[in-house]
Amino acid sequence: MQLLNQTITSIEGQSETSRQQAKDRLDQLIMPHWALGRLMDLAVDIAGISGSIRPNVKRKTIVVMAGDHGIVDAGISLYPQELTVEMVRGFVNGVAGINVLARQAGADVKVVDMGVAGDLSDLAINGDIIDRKIAAGTNNFATGEAMSRAQAIRALEAGISVAHDLAGTTDVFGTGDMGIGNTSPSSAIIATFCQLPVADTVGRGTGLDDAQLANKIKVLEKALELNNPDPTDPIDVLSKVGGYEIAGIAGLILGAAILKKPVIVDGIISTAGALLAARLAPKCTEYMIAAHRSVEKGQIAALADMGKEPLLDLQFRLGEGTGAAVAMNLVEGAVAILTEMATFSEATVSMEK
Ligand SMILES: Cc1cc2ncn([C@H]3O[C@H](COP(=O)(O)O)[C@@H](O)[C@H]3O)c2cc1C
Ligand SMILES: O=C(O)c1cccnc1
């Protein structure tokens, strides 16, 4: 509890001085005023986050938090739980979607076992994954709480500790997730914090049909009624209807904020983690960059709640950190514009407005 308390009470906002210095320079670049639009807004944010107008963004790490979910027993996903382990092995072998897009963006992928139900000890022993396993999957929150308060706090602190462990080799973090069934706790968390009917935050996940979607909504409505999470108590929400990888993502974001490093937030699972982090420490939203608009409508509601506008809309519904990886290219582009493009006074040619 000490690491969590220390972290949430110490997070400061962006540097206003660096934001202003970045704006002043961007105002004078050799092009029509602010003609690169949101890429320039992004450059201002990264300067404010890092406290520098020459921010380092070369070393990028996508952290894929993995965990399983007891609520798969209620038939809320198309796929079996065993796929979580198989996908983790796929990430380690470098063959999944996130591996391809991270390679293309020049980012490392680090996989964290936050609470996978299967045995990954061989990978942990070899150092192929980071082992922060809290339990072998959550309890089915259709029949009781997902985890204890103590487990929820340990999972958040594990995420914070991962950010600290990777800080020496990371300029920019990206969040990712793997866990069959995890769109369900994500939707439940978002419905609770945003005080929305769960039907407004639920989507088809990996591809449910209409009848399966109706069942998912019914299961989650009943689960929320049974658990009655308190939206003013983020640990209560996490323990009752959350997930270990979602807690890990929230912790990673809190850690990035304390380290004053940008964290690119992926799809609905990552955004549920981000909302949890925001409820614990509202200022941490200043360190988040929303990568993309997910097909899942709950993600859009959570982003709106935090006042975040996603950079991309590519109809993604994969997770793993794939949107964050694609958005890393934009982060590097934004900083390149800030640091490499000439101002009118620096340019050798004179230009009349
Ligand atoms: C092969 C495969 C790879 C994935 N990679 C990410 N997800 C994504 O889909 C799952 C969430 O959807 P739902 O809540 O409907 O189960 C999570 O594992 C998420 O990371 C995958 C899903 C599958 C099947
Ligand atoms: O928004 C996402 O990242 C997402 C959507 C559906 C399934 N898995 C992930």
Automatic annotation (TrEMBL):
Keyword Glycosyltransferase belongs to the record: yes
CDD domains on file: DMB-PRT_CobT
Polar residues bias locations: 1-20
Molecular functions per Gene Ontology: nicotinate-nucleotide-dimethylbenzimidazole phosphoribosyltransferase activity
EC number of this enzyme: 2.4.2.21
Domain of life from the UniProt record: Bacteria
Any one GO biological process: cobalamin biosynthetic process
InterPro entries reported in the protein's UniProt record: Nict_dMeBzImd_PRibTrfase (IPR003200), Nict_dMeBzImd_PRibTrfase_bact (IPR017846), Nict_dMeBzImd_PRibTrfase_N (IPR023195), Nict_dMeBzImd_PRibTrfase_sf (IPR036087)
Keywords: Cobalamin biosynthesis, Glycosyltransferase, Transferase
Region annotation (Disordered) ranges: 1-22
Signal peptide residues on this chain, from the entry's feature table: none
Catalytic center residues: 320
Pathway participation: Nucleoside biosynthesis; alpha-ribazole biosynthesis; alpha-ribazole from 5,6-dimethylbenzimidazole: step 1/2
Pfam families: DBI_PRT (PF02277)
Catalytic reactions of this protein: 5,6-dimethylbenzimidazole + nicotinate beta-D-ribonucleotide = alpha-ribazole 5'-phosphate + nicotinate + H(+)
Function: Catalyzes the synthesis of alpha-ribazole-5'-phosphate from nicotinate mononucleotide (NAMN) and 5,6-dimethylbenzimidazole (DMB).
HAMAP family xrefs: CobT (MF_00230)
PANTHER family tied to this protein: NICOTINATE-NUCLEOTIDE--DIMETHYLBENZIMIDAZOLE PHOSPHORIBOSYLTRANSFERASE (PTHR43463:SF1)
Homology family: Belongs to the CobT family.
Protein name, per record: Nicotinate-nucleotide--dimethylbenzimidazole phosphoribosyltransferase
Species of origin: Desulfuromusa kysingii
Gene: cobT
